[in-house]
Sequence to fold (337 residues):
Amino acid sequence: MKLFEILNNEGIENLQLVEKEIPQPGSGQVLVKVHATSLNYRDLVIVEGVNGKLKQPMVPLSDGAGEVVAVGPHVTLFKVGDRVAGTFFQKWVSGEINAEAMKSAMGGAINGMLAEYVVLGETGVVKIPDHLSYEEAATLPCAAVTVWNALVSRGKLTSGETLLIQGTGGVSVFAAQFAQRMGARVIATSSSDEKLEKLKEFGVTEGVNYRTTPDWEKAVLSYTGGKGVDHVIEVGGAGTFGKSLKAVRFGGHISLIGVLTGFSAEINPLPILQKSVRVQGIYVGSRDMFNDMNAFLANTKLKPVIDSVFPFEDTQAAYRHLKSGKHFGKIVIRLNS
Fold:
């Protein structure tokens, strides 16, 4: 079989296509023929070595979907032919995150999905909704589950509340789609007027171009009559967190998810205290959350927004497209047909 490996953390050009034997499932494991994978900003950070040295060589990507083609002894949850996706954390099945689960993050702590075949534990996969293609289902494990955790499991988003999203990457677009179907109002920031206009197709009612309006938090406040939003999907990190604190209402909720603007900055904690803001770090979610989200997707027939699909051999080009920041929604890599 063919797979990609990161040989070192020195850039996209060090992603190499190699051939290895197809692995076989052991007890409690399934063999998945991977049909599609998708990229997250985390994958770019890993291949460029920003988050430190990881074990090499390593198979990248946390996200992928495919078909069960073999099962090992004692497997009870799946059978050959089932359409499945892998879970981001192979050992976070339910409950709270813990240190052991953190060591099972695919495409980082352990090998990921950018291979024609992968062996996964049966509690590390979920069945995918019937209305989704493999390409669509491959976008779910990281970005979509992260949003579900932020808005539903932790945020308890309700109809009539207001949500602020940042940008038009996978997390933000999923957040807009979920919030729209839950009856919430969505405000967005972006560097592109064209992208802001496109977001209206997915439930966004107001948008702010942060390049032409650097004080975008003031615009957000004006849209809410000075009250502030109920929830923020914070993907910018150090460079935007302070503005999010100004844009959120008293007693509001900020889901800290991404670090697109960097890792370090001086943060004044006083507004968190004075406004009684709840700041929640969100690092994807559990298998139970994934299953709950899939039930929601099946009921609402929601389909992920795919920006582009690259063939397996053009994986490096897919990474470069992610790095360009020109995408709207998810970038997918197609493997087996």
